Amino acid sequence: MSKEELIEVNTPEPGETKKPKKERKNKGKLMALLKSRKAKRGSVAIAITAVFICIIILINFITGLLVERFPSLQFDMTASQTYQLQSDTSEYLSQLDKDITLYVLTKESTFKGGLSAYSGAQYFVQADKLLRKMAAKSARVSLKFIDLSSNPTFTGKYENIDWNSDNANNLIIVDAGDSYTALSIDDCFDYDSETYSYYGYYAYTGTKIEQAVITGILDVTTKDKVGIDIITGSGEEKELYSSLQNLLKQNAYSTKEINLTTQKPRENAKIAVLYAPTVDLSEDAVKKLSSWLDNDGEKGRTLIYLPMDVKTSTPNLDGLLEEYGMKISDGLSFCSSSQYYVQNVYMFLADYNNDAYTEDLKDKGVPTIVYNSRNIEITNDDVAKPLLSVESSVGVIPFSVDPSEFTSEQDLEKYKKKSVDLAAIGTKSNEDNNSSNIAVFGSPYIFSQTFLSTTSYNNANYIINFCNTVTNRGDMGITINSAGIDEGELGVTSSSAIIAVGVIFIAVVPLIVLLIGLVMFIRRRNR
After folding, report:
1. For residue range 437-458, what is the model confidence (pLDDT) as tens digits?
2. How far lies 395's CA from each of 187, 412, 422, 448, in Å?
3. Could you count the other beta carbons within 10 Å of the beta carbon of residue 103?
4. Taking the domains of the chain in order of start, what are their residue ranges?
5. Domain at 76-214: CATH architecture
6. Is residue 168 very low, low, confident or very high in pLDDT (cuts 50, 70, 90)?
7. Whole-angstrom Cα distance, residue 59 to residue 75?
């Protein structure tokens, strides 16, 4: 090659810079690396990882859409199934024969956000899930969110609902087409009333939306509601009977407070409740009750009476009970059997003692509980029968005896009886076999909120089943408990279980992942 040719070959073109020898060498190494088996394997691994991540994201996206469309696909890992419908709700909704629309009167995003809650916004997330599951459970139920600011004419369809007063707080409309009802924030949620009174903020503490909606549906689908009168005027405390009154309303009974001093029980009422009067009824009031029970000989009515747990002189009431074959003992019932008592000898479980009033009871294996109960003596067993009884280590301690005298079970021996009847029913029938009844429940606390709100005892189901039986409504009772957010979100409550779960997720799982990665690294390095 000539000198001119050599100069021509090695001389760069104008504008071109000759690359340094080191750069050309690094570029050669990079190209060699990219073409090597190691790089190819790494590229495949990166591609597989990227595809895997994309698949996970896609699966998560599709799952989210499916769960949004089909709420029943959600998996509830809370200890008490916080986000699941109760069995009574599911059963009732599956049997609906009328179309129901639930209108939530706010934007969907605003509802999920807690309606600007001061605290407790998580209960709205819970409520949203429950509402969606109700709609998913029955093709008859539809859920819609209505922003009233964007739809000002919506309220015009519901003229019988209060839209203007400060106490309205309407949150949900339950619409059955030909009838409707409004549910307020107070109906659907529990909140700290003091915080609201002082600061005007809602600090939510729980949701009642499931029971509120079912109550609303019962209200708009039940044509002929059975009337139940709450008798007042003899020192009754509303705090005692309000829980039972609310439970009856939730089960589509029409309740009304009646003062016998100036009123009579309603003609269309089939049940009257006399809840722990502190003084005796007047002779005139007893005559009104007796006449109402007789119903001009037609019968078909029931008085539910719960006496006080202290000594009270009630000769007029006692006379009415005697006509129905019963008498209330002087003193409180006790039970010292470990099989029955719960916290002390005055709080214990009771056995069902009358099949006629438990035939439609859903779970007879769940007991009822009583506290400070009087003993109901049957004076005429042709007329009266027991409802709830206990026959194990029981008795009655008279009111005249000082409870401080009892320091051991031996001190109770002289007051023991073969059995105690904690509830009984007396019946009078006419020639057509129609009956009127007086049912006496010995404990004024048997239908308190404490015992009605728990599924551990059957008090709520029992009294609804009893009312359904005496009014011939059949098995249409439904009892829904308030739902809270469970602290043990995974159903883990014991300290040992919490430690075990912590060890698994904090140590064991990361260690397994680390070992798998280390094995894969060593195997690839040795190839």
Report:
1. 999 999 999 999 899 988 789 9
2. 42, 8, 11, 23
3. 22
4. 3-69, 76-214, 224-470, 492-527
5. 3-Layer(aba) Sandwich (3.40)
6. confident
7. 16
Q: What is the 3-state secondary structure (H, E, C) of 484-495?
A: CCCCCCCCCCCH
Residues of the chain with pLDDT > 70: what percent? 75
Structure tokens at 383: 């007329």
Question: Quick check: 86 and 213 in contact, CB under 8 A?
Answer: no
CATH for 224-470 is 3.40.50.880
How many helices (H) and strands (E) in the chain?
16, 21
Residues whose CB falls within 8 Å of the CB of residue 320, separated by 6 or more in sequence, listed in order: 286, 289, 290, 438
CA distance 524 to 527: 5
Q: How many CA atoms lie within 13 A of 254 on its CB side?
A: 13
What confidence tens digit (pLDDT) does each residue in 253-306 have?
999 999 999 999 999 999 999 999 999 999 999 999 999 999 999 999 999 999
Q: What is the pTM of this model?
A: 0.69
Q: 375 with 333: CB under 8 angstroms?
A: yes
Pair of tokens at residue 461: 């189901």
- CB-based contact 146:103 (threshold 8 Å): yes
What's the CA gap between 436 and 457, in Å, rounded? 28
